[in-house]
Amino acid sequence: MAVKKTTNFKKYINWFWALFIGGFTSVLLFFVLASWGVFGALPTFEELENPESNLATEIISSDGKTLGTYAIQNRTPIRFKDLPNNLVNALIATEDERFYEHSGIDFRGTARAFIKLGKGGGASTITQQLAKNLFTKRASGNTIKRIVQKAKEWVVAIKLERQYTKQEIIAMYLNTQGFLFNASGIRSASRIYFGKEPKELKIEESAILVAMLKNPRQYNPNRKKSKKKSFIRRNVVFMQMEKNGLLTEKEKDSLQKLPLEINYTPESHSDGYATYFREHLRSFLKSWVKKNPKPNGKRYDIYRDGLKIYVTIDSRMQQYAEEAVKEHLANLQKYFFEEHKNNETAPFYDLEEEQITMILERAMKNSDRWREFKKRGVSEKKIIASFHKKRKMKVFTWKGDRDTILTPYDSIKYYKYFLHSGLLSVEPQTGHIKAWVGGINNKHFKYDHVKQGKRQVGSTFKPFVYATVINQLKLSPCAKFPISPYTIPKGKYSIPEPWTPRNSGENPLRYKGELSLKAALAKSVNTMSARMIDMVGPKNVISLAKQAGITNRIPAGPSIALGSVELTLYEMVSAYAMFANKGLRVEPMMITRIEDKNGTLLSQFKPKTREVLSEESAYVILNLLEGVTLNGSGVRLRTSSARPGYVTGYPYKFTNPIAGKTGTTQNHTDGWFMGAVPNLATGVWTGGEDNAIHFEKIGKGQGASMSLPSWALFMRKCYADTTLNISQEVFEKPEKVSIRLDCEGQAKQRDTIKVKKPVIKAGDTDF
Fold first, then answer.
1. Which of the residue ranges 71-80, 489-498, 677-686, 753-762 would you say has the lowest mean pLDDT?
2. Residue 92 domain-assigned?
3. Total domain count for the chain?
4. pLDDT at residue 745 above 90?
5. Element (H, E) at 376
6. Peptide bond into 651 cis (omega under 30)
7. How much of the chain, in percent, has pLDDT values that exceed 70?
8. Are 649 and 328 in contact (CB under 8 A)?
9. Tag placement on the chain: N or C end, fewer CB within 10 Å?
10. What local confidence, expressed as pLDDT, does residue 758 receive?
11. What is the DSSP letter of 13?
């Protein structure tokens, strides 16, 4: 009978323990060698304390909202206390269930991954992933090198656990994660994908972001091809939360049924609010860093050093301003397109074909495309040829960008059809700029019509003439003068020919009778403005305008009384704010303070002030300007009679005191409206890119049609938001007013007028 051979299990058991102990010893030895730096230098204590990171400079509005960033990577760090519990719970349940139990390395998870050869999930803890984000950056494709990297990550993870609290590690990890679409870190991801701060995230939104951590491209909710995967992965997060006791089964089931929803809010220089303001601010900061070095003498980098720029812009008012301009311009543009259908030289008037060609060629040579080709050394002949080849492109429309096929040259002509606008709003008492709309779309139209664009200001300049007369001669708004033609002779004020301005319109009755100063400004009577500037002289008017905030050169001729001078919207609003602030000019300011990434104050800004007018004179000018909106060219703010459709949003039905002035230039090329209430001065300009681009007739082309509606829509939105506290009260009257203001019920008599010789102050000759 054969004897069965007994299996020698002892031999296999010995082999198992030998392999296990040997493997464990090897791993331990490998780990020790890595910790000694045998496989390359490890981060120093100082590097662990201050890991190298590109931190975005953040622009923070006066109401605490992030307007935008300047960044290499759009990363603005956040602290643990600003993370919602649902996000932290979702993260730990999905990425590292034993996060609070281990000290950097989850040996249990590592053993599981080793036995299952990685098929049961990875073994990296949140701390290890943080170590990789901070010091490895990219995993090597070479197996040996990756093993070395992994060993280093283990060592760094343990050091991080000793150095930081668990809460700090979670915050650091989420701050270093990338989420695509210019979203670096959890804070920018929250803003970009949901339009809110992390603290405001709902649990289903937090789950979407946690789902992206596995692979931000493969599980991205904003990519059409990955939305389904994002939805499935989000529901895995809910399942993990239920598994770890963070959700009940009922809550999990309910959440998994929710549709995948995001509020994609891209963040780049051309996206978001206050884009033109942010570009102007960038230019200022580039100058500021040169004058304000770090303690070590090096310059701050606005793209990497995580500065915090606290600005005066109110995000709510900025939004209302941009909405107002868009609503009106999109509507007005329809009438402009319609008018030019029958214009053979559209969108230009009064130009020959050669002149139009010159304008288009100049625009071609000023384009980014031309400059790029010139940098590359391409010949002009080839560049010009490229402008006449059709290509796919996205073009601006009021309903959003549209894909089309055009030659670059034809696209230049297409863009000439668009009307442009700028809006600036300033708080007179502080100089704080509250809203800045530099144009209709920063992506397609870079030119800033607040600070860069100089255009003829028309009748909006007349208040400075009246202010000079009232301040020097103490005239009453009730004072009456003939409205007959008024001539300033040749040679006076160095003019080469006699100057006799005409009033608007052809009706000869416009030159008969007399009007009070208040009525004359309300009706914008040119002959009265000519008479006024001759009373005090152009140089005195220029002196006052410059003290009020006008910085561009003003020619010392009498025609400035009608607004022949070209100025920026920034200058005009700055100067008008002075009237609303009792004659005290406060220089507009856009920044209150600058801090470094740790919150250390680097610079604090205070407004500069200057007395321009007496309080009494300023109040009298406000009284005159109120007449414009009660009985003059700005009366559309009050009335509710039928109006044509191009007056967007009409009727406005304002009943509160408003000091305002319209302005319309020759050929109705530029339309202006300047308006002020006690705590807000706002100006709007509207026109074409070139002077030959305008409406054919004054009905649509005047300031009351082109710009007043944007102002009215903006103010209506501001008043609707009671949190802004925009004043609807009367302008504060000085205790003593010696100048007569009540023109009603008075005897019809002319005030006694003593015309004084113009006085030129020392230092006011450089105009």
1. 753-762
2. yes
3. 2
4. no
5. none
6. yes
7. 85
8. yes
9. N
10. 33
11. H
DSSP letter (8 states) at residue 42: P
DSSP characters over 492-523: GGG-SS-B----SSS-GGGGSSEEEHHHHHHT
CA-wise closest residue to 562 among 635, 666, 713, 644: 666
pLDDT band with cut points at 50, 70 and 90 for residue 146: low
Residue given tokens 């009367």 in the structure block: 730
Instruction: Name the token pair of 655.
Output: 């009943």
Asked whether residue 446 is domain-assigned, the answer is: no
Residue 683's SS3 state is strand
Percent of the residues in the chain that have a pLDDT greater than 90, as a whole number: 70
What is the spatial distance between Cα 546 and Cα 552, in angstroms, rounded to a whole number? 8
Q: Strand 591-595 relative to strand 601-604: parallel, antiparallel, unpaired?
A: antiparallel
CA distance to 307, 380, 642, 688, 692, per residue, from 455 (Å): 36, 32, 31, 11, 13
Question: 517 in a domain, yes or no?
Answer: yes
The secondary structure of residue 245, as a DSSP letter, is T
Range of the domain at 183: 75-266
The candidate with the shortest Cα–Cα distance to 574, out of 590, 556, 598, is 590
Of 218, 244, 266, the domain-final residue: 266
Closest CA to 635 of 742, 523, 507: 523
pTM: 0.81
414, containing H or E segment: helix 408-416
Q: What residue type is 630 in one-letter code?
A: L
Going by C-beta distance under 8 Å and a sequence separation of 6 or more, which residues neighbour residue 757? none
Write down the pLDDT at residue 150.
66
pLDDT band at 16 (very low <50, low <70, confident <90, very high): low
**For the domain that residue 245 is a member of, what is the CATH number?**
1.10.3810.10
Residue in the structure block whose two tokens are 């300049």: 461
Structure tokens at 256: 């998994």
CATH number at residue 710: 3.40.710.10
pLDDT at 488: 96
Say whether pLDDT at 90 is over 80: yes
Label residue 400 left, alpha or beta by phi (over 0 means left) and psi (-120 to 50 means alpha). Answer: left
Cβ atoms of residues 221 and 192 within 8 Å: no
The phi-psi region of residue 389 (left if phi > 0; otherwise alpha if psi is between -120 and 50; otherwise beta) is beta
* 255 occurs within a structural domain: yes
Cα–Cα distance, 702 to 65 (Å, whole number):
37
Cα separation, 528 vs 517, in Å, equals 8
Beta-carbon neighbour count of residue 520 at 10 Å?
27
